[in-house]
């Protein structure tokens, strides 16, 4: 019985700007995605026979994207059979860390290989975008600029594996509501091709180490902080403890800080563990695309040097 066990990583947004509302209901984004080392575990077993998709997890998640992604892959490959997923969640749910999206991408990457029916990366990107705006990024990993809905991706050079602290208070922020609160106007045309703020940030992220030169921001902070003032306090404390930058991820509620050294990061983690009554504190590190791909090749036993990663079995 073929089976595979994979790690599915979380992401943070190093920068996030929401431009206009588009006629299709989505918002035009400019963001910089970054994978981090916090991971869920997914094991997949495949048994020939009648088609059935089963999911076991340490959390009960309605409308789990793992099942939707599996369904989509069965349709795209024409495969049939019994799929059994066991999902161990560590990435906080609904925390702006893309846990569900990452799980879906993990299924898109792993399942065709397990079924010995690899799909070209273009097809995987198309299926990923149809399932959710953050999913295509997890087919790429590392540091990447996301445009359009967030599904149009441009790889940026790898950053070093810097230490990061993730603070996820146990409060829920609804993503569609956060978008609505921004009250963006309906799109009027193509965004300016001139050197804009986002382009400046992407260049600085690609060419300088994290720190003062990164004038990063997350537009959602302006609508989420007034509702949850606790998040602004966490940001202030992260900055005081030496994080550069400290920012909210996605539409929240996870706050992250990037640190110059593991010592500084660990000191900040100890402070939050002692002084702050929050949900979850995770010391992690940035994961470059080189490491992300190496991890995926290892998990799927794909030899180095394949032409169209990740489509070769
Ligand atoms: O694509 P996804 O399912 O992740 O999006 C969830 C919701 O977030 C959408 O229904 C939409 O309300 C909002 N969204 C948006 N613009 C984006 C991405 C998401 O308005 N670029």
Write a compact overview of the structure shown.
The chain is of the alpha+beta class and about 325 residues long.
Query: Sheet bearing the most strands, described?
Result: 10 strands, mixed
Mean pLDDT, to the nearest integer, reads 93
How many distinct beta strands? 10
How widely separated are the two ends?
17 Å
User: Which descriptor suits the 3D outline?
Assistant: globular
Helix proportion range: 25-40%
User: Given this structure, which CATH class of the largest domain is correct?
Assistant: Alpha Beta
Looking at how many chains there are and whether they match, the oligomeric state comes to single chain
Number of helices: 10
| Elements, N to C (H/E) | EEEHEHHHEEEHHHHEEHEH
The radius of gyration is 19 Å
Strand content: 25-35%
Runs with pLDDT <50, length 5+? none
Cofactors and ligands present? cytidine-5'-monophosphate
| CATH topology value of the largest domain | Ribosomal Protein S5, domain 2
Task: Name the CATH architecture of the largest domain.
Answer: 2-Layer Sandwich
Classification by helices and strands = alpha+beta
Number of domains: 2
Describe this protein with a few key phrases:
single chain; 313 residues; alpha+beta; Ribosomal Protein S5, domain 2; Alpha-Beta Plaits; ten-stranded mixed sheet; 10 helices; 10 strands; 33% helix; globular; binds cytidine-5'-monophosphate
Tell me the layout of helices and strands.
Layout: E1 3-21, E2 27-47, E3 52-57, H1 65-77, E4 82-88, H2 99-114, H3 121-131, H4 137-140, E5 143-148, E6 152-155, E7 163-168, H5 175-181, H6 197-207, H7 221-224, H8 229-240, E8 246-248, E9 255-258, H9 262-275, E10 280-287, H10 289-300
Parallel strand pairs: 3-4
Antiparallel strand pairs: 1-2, 2-4, 2-5, 2-10, 5-6, 7-9, 7-10, 8-9
Helix pairs in contact: 1-2, 2-3
The structure holds cytidine-5'-monophosphate.
